[in-house]
Amino acid sequence: MTLYMLSVHHDGTADFESKTMEELQPVFEAVDRFNKELQDAGSWVFAGGLEPIEAATTVDNTKGEALVIDGPFSESKEFLGGFWVIKAADLDEALAWAQRGSKACEGKVEVRPFQGDTEGL
């Protein structure tokens, strides 16, 4: 089994904060069902949602002195909203999970394998 990160990317023009809990509840429920499917299949490793982009802080210590900046690493129309780390036999299986996750969270999902030997994780 290989570990894959399924990262959820939302369009920056989508204003989740203006939606009511009633409007968001179906998405939360769909993601909960997807999480349960991953767990039941033995593919679940870890997952998490992220606070809004305004909560990001970037640290740059590439030039000899640490610079701490409020905000995301880059300006973008899209933002990372959350992620899953899953176990999958191959890329095809990871992509199948990503399709289901994308539908559940109503966002694009990037699939990327971890480097190296992840067997013991």
List the helices and strands and how they pair.
Elements: E1 2-11, H1 21-41, E2 44-49, E3 57-60, E4 67-70, E5 78-88, H2 91-105, E6 108-113
Antiparallel strand pairs: 1-5, 1-6, 2-5, 3-4
Helix pairs in contact: 1-2
Rg over CA atoms, rounded to whole Å, is 16 Å
Shape: flat
Average pLDDT: 88
Structural class from helices and strands? Answer: alpha+beta
Under CATH at level 1, the class stands as Alpha Beta
**Which stretches of 5+ consecutive residues score pLDDT under 50?**
none
Approximately how much beta-strand content do the residues carry? Answer: 25-35%
| Helix and strand pattern | EHEEEEHE
CATH topology: the name is Alpha-Beta Plaits
In CATH terms, the superfamily is Dimeric alpha+beta barrel
- The number of helices is 2
Helix share of residues? 25-40%
Main sheet record: 4 strands, antiparallel
Placed side by side, the strands forming the largest sheet appear as 2-5-1-6
Q: Assign the CATH architecture.
A: 2-Layer Sandwich
The beta-strand count equals 6
Describe this structure in words.
It holds the Pfam family YCII. It comes from Nocardioides phosphati. InterPro entries: Dimeric_a/b-barrel, YCII. This is YCII-related domain-containing protein. It contains two helices and six strands, in the order E-H-E-E-E-E-H-E. It is of the alpha+beta class and 121 residues long. The protein has one domain (2-113): Alpha-Beta Plaits. The strands form two sheets. The protein has a four-stranded antiparallel β-sheet, with helices on one face. Strands 3-4 form a two-stranded antiparallel sheet. Strand 3 and strand 4 form a beta hairpin. The mean pLDDT is 88.
